[in-house]
Amino acid sequence: MSHENLQRKEAAQRSALITTHSYDVSLDVRQAADPDVAGYTSRSVINFSAAAPGQGQVASTFLDFIAAEVHSVFLNGKGLPVADAVEGSRIRLDNLQAENQVTVTGTALYSRSGEGMHRFVDPADGQCYLYTQYEPADARRVFANFEQPDLKAEFTFHVMAPSGWEVASNGVEAARTRLTSDPDTSRWDFAPTRPMSTYITTVLAGPYFRAQDHWSATLDDGTQLEVPLALYCRASMAESFDAAELFGLTKRGLDFFNRLFDYPYPWGKYDQAFVPEYNLGAMENPGLVTFTESYVFTSRATDAQYQGRANTLMHEMAHMWFGDLVTMQWWDDLWLKESFADYMGTLGVDQATDWDTAWVNFANKRKAWAYVQDQLPTTHPVVADIPDLEAAKQNFDGITYAKGASVLKQLVAYVGFDAFIAGSRQYFRDHAYGNTTLADLLKALSDASGRDLAGWAAQWLQTSGISTLSVESGTHDGELGAVAIVQDAVDPVTGRVALRPHRLRVGSYNFDADGALVRTGSVETDIAGARTEVPELTGRPRPALLLVNDDDLTYAKVRLDPVSEATVLASLDRIPDPMARALCWTALWNSARDAESPAARYVDAVKAFGPSETGIGVLLNILDNAQAAVERYTPAAGRDAVRRDFLTAADSQLGLAAPGSDQQLAWARTVAAVSRHDSTLLPRLRELLDGTGKVDGLAVDAELRWNIWHALAANGQAAVEELDSELATDTTASGRAGHATALAARPDPQVKASAWKAAVEGTELSNQLLSATIAGFTTAPAPLLEPYVEPYFASLRGVWDSRSIEIASRIVRGLYPLAQDLPAGTLPKEHPVVLRTDAWLEANADAPRALRRIIVEQRSHLLRALTAQAWI
Question: Do residues 295 and 149 lie in contact, with contact meaning Cβ atoms separated by under 8 Å?
Answer without folding.
Answer: no
